[in-house]
Design a protein that fits this description.
globular; 619 residues; mainly beta; five-stranded mixed sheet; four-stranded antiparallel sheet; 3 helices
Length: 619
């Protein structure tokens, strides 16, 4: 997020609208870690981290590389030898610099062995501290550089709990949540959030959503509360308020919640503000009540100081959501700054389930890609495709955003991928503009009685999920035509600029073409700007440029932040799901734009590229 406020903004303007047409590849590096696309969930979603003359990159298989910022030449690499059966990814590294240790040591002080340290989250639930200068483990952290995140968790089956998002360095602690496998069963690993001392690795505090009084390790023979809401996405931190902001998911399983506790229902799908020193909850705000849709809060909250028109500012938190809504709260109090209405929503009739009579609608901010679909919204690549989509739509129950799951086939739109997902937003603070990318993929689902759920059901992506411990499994299918194209009319993904002062959309453009995808997975090789589902983060710069690569086609693009017009693009060897980042080299004074390219979400084409762009020396 560039800062702990998650703004993804760089106050750099060497590369600008006037010279971007001269931008060229400066160097290419390879991680040697190609994410295998075999249904296991391996994806390269890393945003690199630049500190001084070094660029740090983590790979889907929990390795770290240190590269020279001007040449891409490898300085060192570290292999955690992590293993996991699924969901291999690393979205970023944490970094801590011990300024006291870096100041001139006196005769009475011992030099610190690891004054600059990286925090690597691994796919097998470890938090590792690495010396940023040489790639060695920081021996003073945890057990010879490693904290075992399985401690106090109880049984963790392979692939049921892992780290996938950037650890948050908040003052003198490093904070981690964790991804818990969705929909396998009740009683899965705890959703506890923990903070560790950045130097020693000792547990500083724990927030257990199911037992808020437990703030340290569980008593001998006990565990943190299992099956609680978790925090799998990135967190934010306000040093002035000393608050860490946690975007929570819902307690698994997703689509049947009759057994959830009052505390599960209290803290699921919420922004929870906790004290950075103690982990005590200061306030929380819920964006979906009794969530039956997998409407986890998927993105790092944006912390922004909003001009109040009176010469001052209001400290706000802006949260994007899978249901296509944007919530703006006062980050000191948790009270909505943009209007939210509780509106009645339809109830379901699944035996043993309960339903919230209302849901929060954030009406003071734009709704993006979450309209209630009609038959006239159906679309097809061919007349037959269109007809079959219309038939499919007519056979489903669709009652808007909060269509409750049932034993009949129903349409959830947006689906459980969003809406908005983990890429979060970027900001132009000079004009109070926020840039939001989205995807529009409906989900067809129905409940499956326990006796009809196959023993080998997993459904990590689509298919029948077992939801063991409940009376039902659940079938999940993308709302696609027989040719594999979304059934509703395009765009299927956009980039929007939102004026944070007025709460209005300034511009919205479709993002991505069908050049590298198409019916039945056959590439169309046609740059039709239809707008495809997006997944990844954007980058905003001082020069009024917005960089983005999280499309289904293989390009890094730059947009004019004032108009949304695409003003530059460059072909990548494979697609990207990663966030672009930028820096100025301390050695040469040259500005670089860097992107990881490991493969687009639905593409079989994979790679291990780190690509840096810069202007020619003559520029």
């Amino acid at each position: 997020g560039n800062t702990t406020h998650g703004d993804r903004f760089a106050a750099l303007d060497q590369i600008n609208k006037q010279n971007i047409d001269k931008l060229k590849v400066a160097w290419v590096a390879h991680t040697g870690d190609i994410p295998v696309s075999n249904g296991s969930g391996a994806e390269d979603q890393n945003t690199p981290l630049q500190v001084g003359d070094t660029l740090f990159v983590c790979t889907p298989y929990s390795k770290v590389l240190a590269l020279d910022v001007d040449s891409g030449k490898e300085k060192w690499r570290y292999d955690s030898k992590a293993t996991a059966p699924n969901w291999q990814r690393c979205r970023g590294l944490g970094y801590f610099e011990d300024t006291q240790a870096l100041s001139a040591p006196t005769a009475s002080t011992q030099p610190v062995a690891c004054p600059r340290r990286l925090f690597l989250p691994t796919t097998d639930a470890r938090l590792i501290a690495i010396n940023a200068d040489n790639g060695q483990l920081c021996e003073d952290f945890g057990n010879h550089g490693v904290v075992d995140l399985s401690v106090g968790m109880g049984e963790i089956k392979p692939g049921y709990y892992q780290q996938t998002s950037t650890p948050l360095v908040a003052g003198n602690v490093v904070v981690v949540g964790g991804r818990v496998a969705d929909n396998f069963s009740t009683g899965e690993p705890p959703g506890v959030v923990r903070a560790y001392d950045v130097r020693s690795g000792k547990l500083a505090w724990a927030w257990d959503p199911g037992n808020p009084n437990l703030t340290g390790l569980p008593p001998e023979g006990q565990t943190y509360t299992r099956g609680t809401p978790n925090v799998w996405s990135a967190m934010s931190y306000d040093a002035k308020l000393n608050l860490v902001y946690l975007p929570t998911g819902n307690a698994t399983p997703d689509f049947w919640a009759g057994e959830r506790t009052a505390l599960d229902d209290k803290y699921s799908s919420s922004i929870v503000a906790v004290d950075a020193t103690t982990g005590k909850v200061r306030w929380h705000y819920q964006t979906t009540h009794h969530d039956l849709w997998d409407f986890d809060l998927p993105s790092q909250p944006l912390l922004y100081d909003l001009p109040n028109g009176k010469g001052g500012t209001t400290p706000v938190l802006v949260q994007t959501s899978k249901q296509g809504m944007i919530f703006m709260l006062n980050r000191e109090t948790g009270e909505p700054v943009a209007k939210v209405e509780e509106r009645p929503v339809p109830a379901g009739n699944v035996e043993g389930e309960r339903y919230s009579p209302t849901q929060p609608y954030s009406v003071g901010m734009p709704m993006i890609g979450n309209e209630t679909l009609k038959e006239s919204d159906m679309w097809g690549a061919t007349p037959v495709d269109l007809l079959l989509c219309r038939i499919q739509f007519k056979e489903m129950r669709h009652q808007g955003i909060f269509t409750p799951p049932g034993v009949d086939r129903s349409l959830q739109y947006p689906g459980s991928l969003g809406g908005m997902n983990w890429g979060s937003v970027s900001v132009d603070p000079n004009n109070s503009l926020m840039f939001v990318n989205d995807m529009r993929l409906g989900l067809a689902n129905y409940m499956v009685p326990r006796a009809n759920v196959a023993k080998n059901a997993s459904g990590i992506e689509m298919g029948i999920v077992p939801m063991d411990g409940t009376p039902f499994g659940a079938m999940r299918e993308r709302f696609l035509s027989p040719l594999g194209i979304p059934c509703q009319k395009p765009p299927f993904g956009t980039m929007s600029a939102v004026d944070l002062k007025s709460g209005k959309i300034v511009w919205q453009v479709p993002v991505g073409t069908v050049e590298d995808t198409g019916p039945l997975g056959i590439r169309m090789h046609m740059p039709i700007p239809i707008g495809m589902p997006t997944l990844g983060a954007s980058l905003s710069t001082q020069s009024g440029l917005l960089f983005f690569a999280g499309t289904q086609d293989f390009y890094l693009r730059a947009f004019d932040t004032a108009t949304g017009k695409e003003i530059w693009k460059d072909r990548l060897p494979v697609g990207s799901q990663s966030g672009p980042m930028t820096y100025v080299s301390p050695k040469t004074g040259k500005q670089y734009i860097v992107i990881n390219a490991g493969g687009a979400r639905q593409s079989p084409d994979r790679g291990d590229y780190i690509i840096a762009y810069a202007l020619p020396d003559s520029q």
